[in-house]
Design goal:
347 residues; seven-stranded mixed beta sheet; 11 helices; alpha/beta
Length: 347
């Protein structure tokens, strides 16, 4: 099969022929119809993830068709249309027994713990626990956009963040996760302030429901601007980018007893991220993390997508093929872009 491969961190990846994967006894092989290009893939390429072994094929947001199944798989057959969370749970550890598959103690992640979906085929573990059926009316490109950024934002805003109608929600960073969070919070009846340095990203944020926007490149104090727009601070604020600057700005954007939600990765190469803990104490703030979304919780989100309440399809702003992927991956470090780029490997 053809796949995007890199041999060294930070050096150009290339498209080349590699062996086809085989399913584990509990797993499947999926023919990839669409896969998202995510900033987490860029972090992996840069060497920020300890699970990666070189040479490596990145990619973790995917949808496609089951090609082959292991002999212990009971719920899926070749030809099934599927997607999968980026965290593949074991289904048997203590966290999984509690329903918390997204923090499975023995999780695997395509594109990190093993070769991923920037390829024509990808192997996925524990299929009966992790696969999600893709409705016929949902395109593969839209389904691929769900697997990491949209599902992560949905769980972050709705389940971890406990968003409520009428609340102010600040979203720092309007890439794929941030724009998803804007759309989801607005659909829940919240008033959203979107923060980014890109006018294009802020324009999309308004399109997806943001009440107010703050251009962080022009603002002297982003957090102060959010507090002014919201009449004292956001009830819920998300760092959807992942940097010391956006993390601090998110915490400082909150009103008393507000909730900070860290969604964007904070790579250890940036050093220890300082959090304004004096403000956390003085205002009795909550500090929360959110890491993906379990497959068994997808039906509620998919029902909103099928009803047209949520429109992840609108987040897809660019489609490329495998040949364009190495350059697009490298560009994410300096120009992450707005919206979601989807790779169609067969293109």
């Amino acid at each position: 099969m053809r796949a995007v491969v890199f041999e060294r961190y930070g050096e150009p990846a290339e498209v080349r022929e590699v062996p086809d994967p085989r399913p584990a006894p509990h797993g499947v092989v999926v023919r990839v119809a669409a896969t998202g290009l995510c900033r987490s893939d860029w972090h992996g390429w840069q060497g920020h993830d300890p699970d990666i072994t070189l040479p490596h094929v990145p990619g973790h947001e995917l949808a496609g068709v089951v090609e082959a199944v292991g002999d212990r798989v009971t719920a899926w057959r070749p030809g099934d249309r599927v997607t999968v969370p980026f965290v593949c749970a074991c289904g048997t550890c203590a966290a999984c027994a509690a329903g918390d598959h997204q923090i499975c103690e023995r999780q695997t992640q395509p594109g990190f713990t093993h070769w991923g979906s920037f390829a024509q085929y990808v192997a996925l573990d524990h299929a009966d626990v992790n696969l999600v059926a893709v409705p016929e009316e949902l395109s593969f490109a839209t389904a691929a956009a769900l697997g990491c950024r949209f599902a992560t934002a949905f769980r972050a805003v709705v389940q971890q963040g406990r968003v409520a109608a009428g609340e102010w929600v600040a979203v720092h960073g309007c890439g794929g996760v941030g724009l998803s969070a804007v759309m989801i919070a607005a659909a829940a009846g919240a008033r959203v302030v979107a923060v980014d340095v890109s006018p294009q990203a802020l324009e999309l944020a308004r399109k997806f429901g943001a009440t107010e926007v703050v251009n962080a490149a022009a603002a002297d104090d982003t957090a102060a601007a959010v507090r002014e727009l919201t009449g004292g601070g956001a009830h819920l604020s998300l760092d959807a980018l992942g940097s010391p600057v956006t993390c601090a700005a998110s915490v400082n954007s909150l009103r008393r007893r507000g909730r900070h939600l860290q969604v964007g990765l904070l790579p250890s190469t940036d050093g220890t991220t300082p959090v304004p803990m004096a403000r956390v104490i003085a205002l009795e703030l909550e500090i929360l993390g959110s890491h993906g979304m379990a497959a068994h919780t997808y039906p509620g989100m998919l029902a909103l997508v099928r009803a047209g309440v949520l429109r992840p399809d609108l987040l897809v702003t660019s489609t490329i093929d495998l040949n364009a992927t190495p350059a697009a991956l490298a560009a994410m470090g300096t120009a992450p872009g707005a919206g979601v780029t989807v790779i169609e490997p067969w293109g």
